[in-house]
Specification:
The structure is a single chain. Helices cover about 25% and strands about 25% of the residues. The protein is α+β, with helices and mostly antiparallel strands. It has one domain. A 6-stranded antiparallel β-sheet has the order 3-2-1-6-7-8, with helices on one face. Strands 4-5 form a two-stranded antiparallel sheet. The relative contact order is 0.19.
Length: about 160
């Protein structure tokens, strides 16, 4: 798919700006429409935690199961009222990472994971993912290819990681 990255199109859309990858750990900023500043992250755990907090606050996408604590109790989240968008889709799409920029649209949270679509903005390539692990593999693959591109100067190979 091409031409799908120039909009966010969902209230829970996220723009992930990756600035560096060191020792397999990515760092950068995460943007969503309900905060005027980027949320710094270091590693996928920070991304997941920030996104889950946003989704739980919005009440969208609805969880297939509540969060469980170490003792097996299930907890559900109440939607907070009064959340106001402060960044438009256009403002969010102006943000860019030093080594990669991704628009993440989580459409469902089923089977204790995420399902949705990710777009690599630099190449305007989109792919659907069926789990958080698959999303991480897609982003890592793109960043690895982009890193190789910087070293070899061959840009065409970097787009191959995003399936069509």
């Amino acid at each position: 798919m091409t031409g799908t990255g120039r909009y966010i199109g969902t209230p829970n859309g996220i723009v992930l700006c990756v600035d560096r990858k060191t020792g397999g750990i990515i760092e950068g900023r995460l943007y969503h429409g309900y905060s005027s500043k980027g949320h710094p992250f270091r590693g996928y755990e920070d991304i997941i935690k920030t996104a889950e907090e946003l989704f739980n606050t919005l009440g969208f996408p609805h969880t297939g199961a509540g969060d469980r604590d170490i003792e097996g109790r299930t907890h559900s989240h109440q939607k907070k009222r009064g959340m106001t968008r402060v960044l438009s889709d256009e403002n969010m799409l102006e943000k860019h990472g030093d080594i990669g920029t991704f628009v993440i649209r989580v459409q469902h949270r089923q089977h204790s994971s995420w399902q949705g679509r990710v777009t690599w903005l630099e190449e305007d390539k989109s792919v659907y993912f069926r789990s958080v692990l698959e999303l991480i593999k897609i982003i890592d693959g793109v960043l690895d290819k982009a890193e190789q591109t910087d070293e070899t100067g061959n840009k065409e190979e970097s787009a191959e990681i995003m399936r069509e």
